[in-house]
Design brief:
The protein is an alpha/beta fold and about 280 residues long. The protein has 15 helices and seven strands. The strands form two sheets. A five-stranded mixed beta sheet has the order 3-4-5-6-7. It has a two-stranded antiparallel ribbon with strand order 1-2.
């Protein structure tokens, strides 16, 4: 293989690998909303109520489990919410009532939820919660981006026909393949898991994958971390560390990536995969 030039290699990085389900995971959203369907429909009776505080009190007395819907109405996915004002500080529990009904009415009043329901700002809570879930799901895109990269790399592993394993911890690798990885695990004091382990020709390959669409401190941290693994693993007999990464986010973090590139010979991107990387790497 001819000597690679970092700047030329970086130019082959992709803008995106987003599939159709990257933007919103509707299947997950529908499941989340369906779990609360009964409680949502009960609270739906508050929409347009002329006496909303009394109606809310009646609901809590008969159906206290409806409280668990309240956080999602505020676009929060937690069972406890902390609030403080001139009247004190409170940690509201929405799984099991821990304050008086009057205090929960105060919460609904102060957060604006009574106003939202009473004045028909929303017409149907089921639709409203579905919309909130769509918004919250956007926070999972970065994680889905990483998973999509894993799926992409796995598709090339399948084509290569090699024996591979997903998400395997170092201690499992050591036990299965009788190989000493203590240099990476700091003598078993650090827990490490590889995205893929490949049983190659007389060598075990530990593969990490990721994809970054935007810049951030995470990229520099990742580059430093993998640079360290590269240095720690270079003298391990029968083992090679491989990092496959991509994404335009690296254009702003090129300096740290280049430092790793110069140390880690097995640093690749999607372009390398498409040009037969695995067919040659595992020989």
């Amino acid at each position: 293989m001819s000597k690679r030039i970092f700047e030329e290699w970086l130019e082959t990085f992709r803008d995106s690998i987003s599939g159709y389900n990257y933007y919103t995971d509707f299947e997950k959203i529908y499941k989340n909303v369906e779990k609360l369907k009964i409680e949502i429909n009960i609270l739906n009776s508050l929409v347009g109520s002329k006496n909303i505080e009394q109606d809310f009190e009646n609901i809590l007395e008969k159906y206290p489990e409806c409280l668990k819907v309240i956080p999602i109405l505020l676009a929060v996915r937690r069972n406890e919410l902390y609030c403080i004002d001139e009247n004190g500080e409170f940690l509201y529990n929405f799984k099991k009532i821990n304050y008086s009904v009057e205090q929960y009415k105060y919460f609904m009043r102060q957060t604006g939820l009574f106003e939202l329901l009473k004045n028909h700002v929303v017409n149907n809570l089921y639709d409203y919660v579905t919309g909130v879930e769509v918004g919250l799901d956007s926070n999972g895109r970065q994680n889905r981006g990483g998973k999509q990269m894993e799926k992409l790399v796995e598709s090339f592993l399948k084509k290569s026909g090699v024996e591979y394993y997903k998400e395997m911890y170092l201690n499992v690798v050591e036990e299965k393949f009788k190989i000493d990885l203590s240099a990476i695990s700091a003598n078993d004091t650090a827990t490490k898991r590889f995205d893929f382990i490949v049983n190659g020709n007389k060598k075990i390959f530990g593969i990490e994958t990721n994809f970054y669409t935007s810049n951030g401190s995470k990229l520099n941290e990742t580059a430093r971390s993998y640079k360290m693994i590269a240095e720690e693993s270079k003298d391990i007999s029968g083992f090679r560390f491989v990092w496959i990464t991509d994404g335009q986010g690296w254009k702003q973090a090129a300096k740290n990536l280049k430092e790793t590139f110069l140390i880690l010979g097995d640093l690749y991107n999607i372009h390398d995969l498409e040009n037969g990387l695995f067919e040659n790497l595992f020989k």
